[in-house]
Amino acid sequence: MRTLLAFLAVVTGGCAVVQPPAPVSAPVTDSAPAPAPPAARTESAAIAGLLDGARADAASGRLANAAASLERALRIEPRNPRLWQELARVRLKQGEYAQAESTAARSNSWAGGDNRLRAENWRLIAQAREARGDAAGARAALEAAGRQ
Question: Taking the model in full, what pTM does it have?
Answer without folding.
Answer: 0.71
